[in-house]
C-alpha cells in the first residue's frame, strides 16, 4: 500500500460519515504525518505499517465523531494489534496480565487464611488452657 492508497481508502471510508471540513482536516493531518515521518528517516512502508488499517482508523474517527455529537464515551483504535476497542476494554495481553495478577492475589489471600486457621487451631487450645490455669490460680488467691 502506498501513501496515496492509504489516503484514498481513508477518504472513501470517511466520505459521508463526517463533514467535508473534518474530512479535509483528517486527510491533511495524515498526509503531513506520513510526510514528517518519512522526512525523519522512516520508509513509507514503515510509516503505513505503524498506522495500521485506514478502515480501522476511519472507524475510530467516525465513532469519535458520533460520540462527540451524542456526548457518550467511545472507543479507540489500537494500532499495535489493529483493533478497535471500546473505552475501558483492555488488550488481550494486558487482560491476561491483569487476570494473572488477580488470580495470584486470590491464591495469596487463600494461603494466608489457611495459615491463619492452622495457627489458630494449633495455638488456641494452649491459650485457653493458660487462661483457665490463670483464672484458677487467681481465684484461689482471693
Tally of individual domains: 2
State the low-pLDDT regions, or none: none
Mean pLDDT: 82
- Strand portion, in percent? 5-15%
Q: Give the fraction of residues assigned to helices.
A: over 70%
- Tell me the major beta sheet: 2 strands, antiparallel
Distance, first to last CA: 98 Å
Number of strands: 2
Give your account of this protein's structure.
This protein is mainly alpha-helical. The protein has 2 domains: 3-89, no CATH class; 90-142. Helices cover 75% and strands 6% of the residues. It has helices at 3-14, 20-39, 44-51, 54-70, 92-141; strands spanning 75-78, 83-86. β1 and β2 form a beta hairpin.
Question: What is this entry, summarized?
Answer:
The chain is mainly α. It has helices at 3-14, 20-39, 44-51, 54-70, 92-141, and strands at residues 75-78, 83-86. The protein folds into 2 domains: 3-89, no CATH class; 90-142.
Keyphrases for this structure?
single chain, 142 residues, mainly alpha, 5 helices, 75% helix, rod-shaped
Write the layout of secondary structure elements.
Layout: H1 3-14, H2 20-39, H3 44-51, H4 54-70, E1 75-78, E2 83-86, H5 92-141
Amino acid at each position: 500500500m502506498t501513501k496515496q492508497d492509504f489516503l484514498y481508502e481513508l477518504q472513501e471510508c470517511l466520505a459521508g460519515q463526517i463533514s467535508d471540513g473534518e474530512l479535509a482536516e483528517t486527510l491533511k493531518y495524515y498526509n503531513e504525518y506520513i510526510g514528517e515521518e518519512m522526512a525523519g528517516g522512516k520508509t513509507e512502508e514503515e510509516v503505513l505499517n505503524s498506522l495500521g488499517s485506514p478502515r480501522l482508523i476511519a472507524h475510530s474517527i467516525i465513532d469519535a465523531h458520533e460520540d462527540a455529537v451524542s456526548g457518550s464515551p467511545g472507543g479507540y483504535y489500537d494500532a499495535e494489534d489493529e483493533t478497535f476497542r471500546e473505552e475501558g476494554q483492555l488488550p488481550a495481553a494486558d487482560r491476561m496480565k491483569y487476570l494473572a495478577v488477580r488470580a495470584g492475589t486470590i491464591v495469596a489471600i487463600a494461603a494466608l487464611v489457611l495459615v491463619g486457621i492452622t495457627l489458630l487451631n494449633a495455638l488456641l487450645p494452649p491459650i485457653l488452657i493458660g487462661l483457665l490455669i490463670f483464672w484458677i490460680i487467681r481465684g484461689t488467691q482471693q
